[in-house]
Amino acid sequence: VNMKTKLIICCLFFFIFSPADGDSNPFSLDKTADLFSSFMSIFSRSFQKSARILSRDRSNFEVPDVVMEELEKISESCLTFEEHKKLANDTENDADQLYRVLHFNEELLKTATEIIGFTELRAVLGFSPPKPWTNSNEIKSRVPANATIEQYYNANESRHRNRILRYSLEDKQVSSAVKFLDKRFPVIRDAYTKSYKHNWDGKKKIDRKIVDDMLDLYDTVYDSIDFRIYDLTRRSKIEECKPKKDT
Ligand SMILES: *[C@@H]1O[C@H](CO)[C@@H](O)[C@H](O)[C@H]1NC(C)=O
Ligand SMILES: *[C@@H]1O[C@H](CO)[C@@H](O)[C@H](O)[C@H]1NC(C)=O
Ligand SMILES: *[C@@H]1O[C@H](CO)[C@@H](O)[C@H](O)[C@H]1NC(C)=O
């Protein structure tokens, strides 16, 4: 997908999703600012990724079609307000609860998705699991020429993190959201593992190019989950959601 197409896709999401949310005050400043920040976050990630790929040999790593089809399950599903409250660990039943919980969960679930993606990537490449979650994300601008491949990976992973976060999350919150996703949407972890293994079978020796390509592949999988999570945390989606019998 080239840069121009990405841009068009970004704009389309912006227009499709913004008026569709059944909020009683759709033009509140807060909401517009949040929407803008979501948009900027997608835009800046796509932009950085295109710039990275253009500046070196193109990656031909891709997400298998079957994975894309399986991810549809997220869009076909929904979460009830009860599930959202539990996930957010929010027991204050006040008038702002719905809005507060949905916003918080959007970010929490995206962060959990990110951690799942990095955990699986590190496992496939044979590196140690991610450190406990922190909001800080300093970026190392230089890796010494003699850095090991794992040090190179560590230095670059942070460039692929979502760097526009509104909430300060704790590791225990993120871990509990990871457990929630593994139970409720196992398709997320599967999507990462299948995509990584489809493109790199572990037989070819890891070099920096493979690390770069795998991190870009991580981005592609993340992007296909990101907008579905956004959709799960829309107010209109919760309102039409009936509790599932099997959960
Ligand atoms: C990986 O990190 C190093 C140092 O931080 C940087 O020079 C290099 O450009 C990064 N690679 C990519 C593909 O961003
Ligand atoms: C790289 O070289 C420097 C000295 O030039 C040394 O201090 C460092 O330990 C080396 N790192 C690795 C991973 O070998
Ligand atoms: C949920 O909230 C309670 C009470 O504030 C707290 O003790 C607990 O650690 C929280 N759990 C998580 C996973 O954040």
Short synopsis of the structure:
The chain is mainly α and 247 residues long. The chain has helices spanning 3-20, 29-54, 65-76, 81-88, 97-125, 149-157, 171-184, 187-199, 208-232, 235-239.
Largest sheet: none
The residue-averaged pLDDT reads 84
State the distance separating the first and last CA atoms.
Answer: 37 Å
Quick one: how many beta strands?
0
Estimate percent helicity: 55-70%
**Count of DSSP H/I helices:** 10
Strand content: under 5%
Cofactors, ions and other ligands in the entry: 2-acetamido-2-deoxy-beta-D-glucopyranose
Multimer state? single chain
As a whole number of angstroms, the C-alpha radius of gyration is: 18 Å
Q: SS-based structural class?
A: mainly alpha
* Low-pLDDT segments, ≥5 res: 11-27
Order of helices and strands: HHHHHHHHHH
| Overall tally of structural domains | 2
**Coarse shape:** globular
Q: How would you characterize this protein structure?
A:
This protein has 247 residues and is an all-alpha fold. It folds into two domains: 1-55, no CATH class; 62-241, no CATH class. 64% of the residues lie in helices and 0% in strands. The chain contains ten helices and no strands. It has helices at residues 3-20, 29-54, 65-76, 81-88, 97-125, 149-157, 171-184, 187-199, 208-232, 235-239. Helix 5 (97-125) crosses helix 7 (171-184), helix 5 packs parallel to helix 8 and helix 8 (187-199) packs antiparallel against helix 9 (208-232). Residues 11-27 have low confidence and may be disordered. One 2-acetamido-2-deoxy-beta-D-glucopyranose binds next to loops. Residues 1-22 form the signal peptide. Keywords: Signal.
